[in-house]
Specification:
The chain is an alpha/beta fold and about 230 residues long. It has 8 helices and 10 strands. Strands 3-2-1-9-10 form a 5-stranded mixed sheet, covered by helices on one side. A 5-stranded mixed sheet has the order 4-5-6-8-7, with no helix packed on it. Helix 3 crosses helix 4. The longest helix is centred in the first third of the chain and has 14 residues. The N and C termini lie far apart (about 35 Å). About 45% of the residues are buried.
């Protein structure tokens, strides 16, 4: 099965529509989402509606939770708090209900889905390094665990020295961010996992960054959130 794994859309409609068009060209069998559908960007309702339509499974992200209950944004930056409050105010009831029913974790036959990490998905702790990744393998039994949250793509095998997917090992995979990459590459990022071929491809491509930035400004959200899209930070 070919599975497209998307994450950290952050209300970026321009990036999401471009990613979905590429996914259609890839001939995948299933689309799954690792959360943070909303937050930061200017089109939360449109993005939730597309995820509801296209993703067979989706887990809850911390910005999704903060949009439902803004008290969860208390540790965000001031820009993140402003976006969470605005998103909370504009979400439709249907989209609020959808996000409110998302689980923290989904275990499929070969694939575990969480937003931040499998050890404590509800605590939103980041996996930045090999030392962060090592204990995570004790908390899933599937061949693959896909995460987002850091907005930086990576692959790590359970031996801590294999950084591409191959048979015989289990893997922790960060698919990167659709809507707000932070690895100094402004191109959107997602993954395509082939469970039969035991292969994985990280897909990067340009999208309409100007349009996404303008949507942020048109809704009087902080300019910083628009400017960072051009630099991938």
């Amino acid at each position: 099965m070919r599975i497209a794994v998307i994450s950290d859309i952050h209300s970026n409609l321009q990036a999401l529509t471009k990613a979905l068009s590429l996914i259609d060209e890839c001939g995948v069998d299933r689309v799954v989402c690792l959360g943070d559908v909303v937050g930061y960007g200017g089109n939360p309702n449109e993005c939730v509606e597309l995820v509801r339509e296209r993703a067979a499974e989706c887990v809850l992200g911390n910005h999704d939770l903060a949009a439902l209950d803004t008290s969860h944004a208390r540790f965000f930056t001031r820009y993140g708090r402003a976006a969470a409050q605005w998103t909370h105010d504009v979400l439709t009831e249907d989209n609020r209900n959808y996000l409110g029913n998302l689980p923290y974790r989904i275990d499929m036959d070969l694939l575990t889905l969480v937003h931040a990490n499998p050890e404590s998905p509800e605590n939103w702790e980041y996996v930045f390094s090999l030392e962060d990744a090592r204990p995570q393998f004790h908390h899933f039994e599937t061949s693959f665990c896909c995460i987002g949250h850091s907005h930086v793509p990576f692959i790590c095998g359970e031996d801590m020295k294999t950084f591409y997917v191959k048979s015989g090992l289990r893997f922790l995979i960060n698919v990167g961010s659709i809507g707000q990459p932070r690895d100094r590459n402004p191109q959107l990022s997602f993954g395509v996992l082939d469970t039969e071929q035991f292969s994985y491809e990280n897909i990067r491509t340009d999208y309409d960054v100007k349009g996404a930035a303008q949507a942020i400004l048109d809704n009087d959200l902080p300019r910083f959130l628009a400017d960072r899209l051009f630099n991938g930070v």
